[in-house]
Amino acid sequence: MTACEYKPGLEGIPAAQSSISFVDGQKGILEYRGIPIEDLAEKSGFIEMSFLLIWGYLPTKEELEEFEAEIRYHRRIKYRIRDMMKCFPETGHPMDALQASAAALGLFYSKRALEDPVYIRKAVVRLLAKIPTMVAAFQLMRKGNDPVQPRDDLRYAANFLYMLNEREPDPLAARILDVCLILHAEHTMNASTFSARVTASTLTDPYAVVASAVGTLAGPLHGGANEEVITMLEEIGSVENVRPWLDNALEKKSKIMGFGHRVYKVKDPRATILQGLAEQLFQKFGHDDYYDIAAELERVVEEKLAHKGIYPNVDFYSGLVYRKMGIPTDLFTPVFAIARVAGWLAHWKEQLEANRIYRPTQVYAGLHEQGYVPMDQRKSEIVS
Ligand code: SDX
Fold first, then answer.
1. How many CA atoms does the CB half-sphere of 144 hold within 13 Å?
2. pLDDT at residue 4, rounded to an integer
């Protein structure tokens, strides 16, 4: 293996052969099972889209109704998991709470039958059904309240908002959240999906696979960016301050949260759709200057960084949408995780269908033939 074959971050290196989604970073194209994301955002729903990702085709009416009914039935979580979550510090980040509770599911469903389609479907239903309940439960418990039970008469996104806010959501907000879940569900070989496939390849249980992916998504360079975008907009504070703030940030070589992408060198098609959803929400629920600051920041970043192919990514406008829905900022990434579970499960299933455990190699950059130095001859090499 020569050093020239090594690519930091595996940039441009295929890590799997997959038929789940496709991205053209130059043309700004994203397809799930060959269907353009724009069509799915306009015409589909999160549960129907999840079925498409995981089983590879759009379900019949009967299949969709059965899938939705199974997910409704499994939305509740074990009281022991709720009791465990009550011991979590309310100051802890909700992504850490989600990772711990997702892994805990494996304690209750420990039987593994990875070659059994019935087991696969059960695990898919349980994870899609229970992740939103766990996110909402932690939110209520960290406020000192008891979590509320899911409502079977509400559809997926509406039920999540109900469990989160203890009141029925506005229909527009519920529909817009459903579209956001579609947009965030899958995106080829991103870091958290790669984690999911590596973990799946060892034939561990699907709950460990999702817990591994949740931990990866939490980072600010990946799923954590949407939370950072709101913090950034708050720091900018006004449209007039956008340009001076950006000049200062670029001078410090800071990464502008919500911008840039390893694959997209044009505006992320999901950002375009999310921008439209944000406009709908601001029209209905009242305008505030966050949107104006974001729009001005997009204009000035394009002026300064378009030559590097740096444009808004999915995280830039999603935070504005979630904030307008009253979702707390540190829950933005858990909402991303609720959606991406569908993609992780699709990759888990696909990995099992043609599995080979991941074990890449390395370019060794260390020393050889070093002697064992006696204690009295050693000196510290830590530079404080
Ligand atoms: C997601 O992979 C996926 O598909 C992810 C995702 C998904 O759906 O799963 O799309 C979701 O994670 C979106 C990305 C969210 N992250 C952020 O918004 C954080 C800010 N973005 C950057 O950290 C960055 O753009 C990355 C991490 C997203 C991509 O970085 P790359 O491909 O490793 O690019 P790089 O760091 O090598 O930068 C290349 C150049 C550098 O300039 P030079 O040193 O060549 O002069 O572009 C610059 C970088 O400084 N650059 C940025 C920038 N991103 C890249 N400069 C300012 N602000 C930025 N955001």
1. 0
2. 60
Query: In the chain, which residues fall in CATH 1.10.230.10?
Result: 225-324
Q: What are phi and psi of 105, to 5 degrees?
A: -55, -35
- CATH number, domain 17-220+341-353, options 1.10.580.10, 4.10.320.10, 1.10.4100.10, 2.130.10.10: 1.10.580.10
Residues spanned by CATH 1.10.580.10 within the chain?
17-220+341-353
Check if 93 is active-site. no
**Measuring from atom 20 of ligand 1, which residue has the nearest CA?**
257
Whether the Cβ atoms of residue 191 and residue 11 lie closer than 8 Å to each other? no
State which residues of the chain have pLDDT below 50: none
CATH architecture, range 225-324: Orthogonal Bundle (1.10)
Q: Give pLDDT, residue 111.
A: 84
pLDDT digits (tens, 9 = 90+) for 28-53: 999 999 999 999 999 999 999 999 99
Please give the sequence-ordered ranges of beta strands (E in DSSP) within the chain, or none if there are none. 21-24, 29-32, 35-36
Q: pTM (2 decimals)?
A: 0.95
Query: Which of 257, 310, 311, when mutated, tests ligand 1's pocket best, judged by the most ligand atoms within 8 Å of its CB?
Result: 310
Say yes or no: CB of residue 221 within 6 Å of ligand 1.
Answer: yes
